[in-house]
Amino acid sequence: MLNRIILMGRLTRDPELRHTQTGTPVASFSLAVDRDFKDKTTGEKSTDFIDIVAWRQTAEFVSRFFTKGRMAVVEGRLQIRDWTDKDGGKRRSAEIVADNVYFGDSKRDGAGDFGGAPASYSAPMGGRNAAPMGGQSDFAEIGEEDGELPF
Known about the structure:
Elements: E1 5-11, E2 16-19, E3 25-38, E4 45-55, H1 56-65, E5 71-84, E6 90-103, E7 120-122
Parallel strand pairs: 4-6
Antiparallel strand pairs: 1-3, 1-5, 2-3, 3-4, 5-6, 6-7
């Protein structure tokens, strides 16, 4: 079975960092994600507002380097929670549990100075990290006149 989600959008508010009773950091934030198509009647794109939860080092990374309006790429899984409201009614919420969070814009596009912040944070079990912002790429530029292709 597969439960994998990748989203790119702008933070609608600054991340809220809290700690559980055992001291585990958890950050909550929301992404505004535009849909790929326009509404036929208005001609405008609709926006979805998606709740995100990040845990441990990812939570600390997000709360330190992301602010309202920054573009973020979130990789994670969908989680559905059932809960009871204060009136005793049964409620259901959907949220994304973030495994990896990356900057979706460049340092100059976003607000503020990030003091050499890494481009992403992957949870230790999450695997791959992105190359640091402004870092050297392992790929060489290809000019327009590279000769004939081998196929």
